[in-house]
Amino acid sequence: MEQLKTIGRELAMGSQGGIGQSKEFLDLIKSIGEARSKAEEERIVKREIETLKGKLSSPNSTKYKLKEYLIRLLYVEMLGHDASFGYIHAVKMTHDENLLLKRTGYLAVTLFLNDDHDLIILIVNTIQKDLKSDNYLVVCAALNAVCKLINEETIPAVLTQVAELLGHHKEAVRKKAVMALHRFYQKSPGSVSHLISNFRKKLSDNDPGVMGASLCPLFELITNDVDMYKDLVASFVNILKQVAERKLPKSYDYHKMPAPFIQIKLLKILAVLGNNDKKASEQMYTVVGDIMKKCDTMSNIGNAILYECICCISSLYPSPKLLEAAADAVSKFLRSDSHNLKYLGIDALSQLIKIGPEIAEQHQLAVIDCLEDPDDSLKRKTFELLYKMTKSSNVEVIVDRMIDYMISINDNHYKTEIASRCVELAEQFASSNEWFILTMNKVFEHAGDLVDIKVAHNLMKLIAEGFGEDDDAADRQLRSSAVESYLRIMGEPKLPSAFLQVICWVLGEYGTADGKHSASYITGKLSDMAEAHSSDDTVRAYAVSALMKIYAFEIAAGRPVEVLPECQSLIDEMLASHSTDLQQRAYELQAVLSANAHTIKEILPMDSTHNEIEIDGNLSFLDGYVKKSLEKGAQPYIPESERSGAFNISSFKPHEDHESTSHGLRFEAYELPKLPQPATIPQVRPASTDLIPVPEPSYVSDISLPPASVPYSSDAGPAELKLRLDGVQKKWGRPTFSSPSPSTVNSEVKVQAEAPQMSSLSDSNAKSRSTVSYDSRKPQVEISPEKQKLAASLFGGVSSKSEGRHSFSGQRPSKSHSQVSDKHHAAKAAALDSNPAKPSQPPPDLLDLGEPSVASGTPSLDPFKQLEGLLDLSHESPPVTGSTATQAPDFMSLFSDMSLSAPPMDSTSDLFSNMGIENGKRASQIESPVSSKGPNLKETLQKDALVRQMGVTPSGQNPNLFMDLLG
Asked: How far apart are CA 864 and CA 892, in angstroms?
């Protein structure tokens, strides 16, 4: 009591202007409040800062004057100005013995500083001393500072003292000690793992405040590990029952509701514990139902508790009575005139439709009213509800509403969210591919560059794959409609770059496929687009690639090619471009224009974008070359998992760099030189002809040199002090070879089956609530036909999201994949059966074009005879009976049929070596001119490898290898 009187006398000092404050401070607050502009407020605050700087540095200021100056400095800091010049004075005030000054100092430092500030180290000793004080007010002030200022490094300094305060005789100290331990758990869970059991103990504390404080850390612990706290269900239910029966002191009541915040926290905990647990949920039904009956819906806090009860019911194992009570509460919210309560009703309804979708149908007119409400927050929450209610029968209405709302708003963040939801719903529940394409066009047109680039890729994939069935007519109709829609849209201004890329790709692939539009018309449109977007190199690159495809298809079909003047000027401009990518595409286009029809059919087959590529991932055609190189003394290949981080190329520095980084004398002895280890020749695996799917493209992140090539570094210390980096993963920067290769773990998402009781519960709910619908509770108002039609569209049929189609962006059955794989395996089996006893011959060395080395017992062979034998695979594998025989095309005829006006040697090699960069999948899968279902992959792969090797690296004795082949 004596301490309280002292505090009262100190607060009453300073007199004239008010309780504990001077007239100057009150004049400051009044002048800032009456400021008519921001500039005037800035002048007042800056003048106050200059005044405080002079008074804080004055040696004649008393302690109570310093207290007032700190409070004024707090006010300056809260207005957004720098007050760091007074931080040290706040730290000094925490050392004062006077209670009022100490608490003022703690208040100032908790508002001025953060847990990483440099001045924190000056406060730790003061906090340790104050935690041992006999005055519980000093201890409480220190605990407040602990919660705000103690960081992970200083937790051990005060952890023991805070844990001892859990048994303090004052309930306020125990409560703040629980809060401090909770803060420690949030910052460093490992440091308080041995003290977690104290939270359970404080749940049964005699003081309700301490018990309520322990609910917050327990909620986090239960959320992280539910099974570990299942035994506390009965305790939580008992506490909630006592709170609801008003057994707590009156001081915990708020607007006539008993301890509402403790009730809300307990309901959140019960929702987590009872989720998908029938036994635990049955213990909660009674108390949750009693709370819903006792809630006072005339106050905001009563509605908050009622809303939390609805959320809890939606998480518990379904109970028909509770679901009915929750539906009644939702109807009360939706019938209210308050926008806040309508917002609660829409949010609560979105929780309940997870259990019973038919609940939303009772309130369909209320949902439509909220959708047309001028309140933007309510409208957005209603769209979230419709997003969860979407199914195949109402997807078109909901997506069209979302797009209209997206057009009307200017918030880019929310516009991005609406666009992503429209794309997701269209991919999952689209009724037809035509509607999906039109919807994507609207999203791209109005959302612009806010749409993810993956959406554009998915759209191109859908157009290429079609319906995923053997309905070629429907696929052609889909592509024709896409071409027509893009020709109409491409003239509009301000189209996003991703959408323009889609348009160029579709026009290049299918612009002339249906015969409605000539090649000149399409190429003119593409040239105009490239000219209109001269600053976007990506769009121009797509346009040039589309031109090349159209011209290639025209040449392959035997039709004359007419290059328009605007197209020729575009090509000339690209040839002189600063972008190497545009230059390469332009040179490839020139090479295509000068090639013959037979070559074009091989390098650019028609409509092969959706064909899957299968290659020999083991690169077995290089086994002979590797074996010979190892015999000649080459270093063996070291797997990535066995490479050491010490041999990373980043560790190699020039000698000058090592000298520049050393700043002192080195006295340790030099390392003894190590003798080079002889290279070991590993056993070469037999050639494998199995084909595997192509993985995603990956890039070499680091370059590793063999151990023998590592230069001696002068920075290396003694051998016994070296760190072993084998198997150590590099955490920062680019990954090195020392990190183990990550293993891919395929995880499956398991969808839990709905409980058998659900259907019966939903039926009973629908019957019991049929009498309390939205229409019967409101006065009979005439409903417009538009609203009735919209309600029928949104809530017409009852079905779940499982009725929707599979995502359009997901995997689709490929038309040619199964046929190609079947033909490949059949041909392989026939080849093995025809020559069972034929000895295996090593493959010819295609890269060694010098003088043939004479091996013992091996006659010399003509390398070009070997080349012809390798290409003509039809003699070794007879045709498969029962299927269409596919004749391998004569590779040499590709060169013999070329006209004399062919481009020079370099452009011919560029045509084949660089065409794969433009066409992606087409370069490694060359379609046979005879077969229309799929090429012979083994032949094409060997041809492609041969051309790339021989065209890129000719030997010194035969530099004009292509000229020799051409005769």
From this structure: 12
The whole-angstrom separation of Cα 115 and Cα 121 is 10
- Residue 601 in contact with residue 927, Cβ under 8 Å? yes
Residue 381, number of CB atoms within 10 A of its CB: 19
Burial class (CB in 10 A: 0-12, 13-18, 19+), 320: middle
Q: Are 816 and 928 in contact (CB under 8 A)?
A: no
Give pTM, 2 decimals.
0.59
- What is the length of the chain? 967
SS3 per-residue string spanning 212-266: HHHHHHHHHHHHHCCHHHHHHHHHHHHHHHHHHCCCCCHHHEECCEECHHHHHHH
Arithmetic mean of pLDDT, 330-340: 91
Write the CB contacts of 392 (distance below 8 Å, at least 6 apart in sequence).
429, 431, 799, 803, 804, 805
Going by C-beta distance under 8 Å and a sequence separation of 6 or more, which residues neighbour residue 224? Answer: none
Q: Which residues of 697-706 are buried (b: 16+ CB within 10 A; e: fewer)?
A: eeeeebebee
| Tally of CB atoms within 10 A around 930 | 12
Q: What is the DSSP string of 585-647?
A: HHHHHHHHHTS-HHHHHHHS-TT-TTPPPEE-TT-GGGHHHHHHHHHTTPPPP--GGG--GGG
682: left (phi over 0), alpha (psi -120 to 50) or beta: beta
Q: In the structure encoding, which two tokens stand for residue 451, read together?
A: 């749409």
Helix (H, G, I), strand (E, B) or coil at 811: coil
pLDDT digits (tens, 9 = 90+) for 161-175: 999 999 999 999 999
Place of tokens 């429209």: 422
pLDDT digits (tens, 9 = 90+) for 487-543: 888 878 788 888 899 999 999 988 888 888 888 999 999 999 898 888 889 999 999
Separation of alpha carbons 492 and 605, rounded Å? 32
φ, ψ for residue 374, nearest 5 deg: -70, -15
Residue 771 has pLDDT above 60, yes or no: no
* Phi, psi for residue 810 in degrees, rounded to 5: -80, -165
pLDDT band at 694 (very low <50, low <70, confident <90, very high): very low
The Cα–Cα gap between 202 and 213 comes to 9
Can you spell out the DSSP letters for 817-855? HHHHHHHHHHHHHHHHHH-TTPPPPPPP-SS--SSPP--
Retrieve residue 298's tokens: 């005339």
pLDDT score of 10: 46
Closest C-alpha to 222, from 213, 233, 212: 233
- Taking the chain, what is the end-to-end CA distance rounded to the nearest angstrom? 114
Q: Which of 375-379, 402-406, 675-679, 702-706 has the lowest mean pLDDT?
A: 702-706
pLDDT at 428: 86
Residues 6+ apart with CB under 8 A from 961: 849, 950, 951, 954, 955
- Reported as a pLDDT band with limits 50, 70 and 90, residue 605 is confident
Q: Report the alpha-carbon distance of residue 822 to residue 818 in Å, rounded.
A: 6
CA distance 509 to 542: 11
Write out the two tokens for 826: 């059949």
Tell me the C-alpha distance between 310 and 303, whole Å: 11
pLDDT tens-digit readout, 632-674:
999 888 887 787 654 444 444 444 444 444 455 666 666 666 6
296-306: pLDDT as tens digits = 888 999 999 99
Q: At CB < 8 A and 24+ separation, what contacts does 781-786 make?
A: 783/365
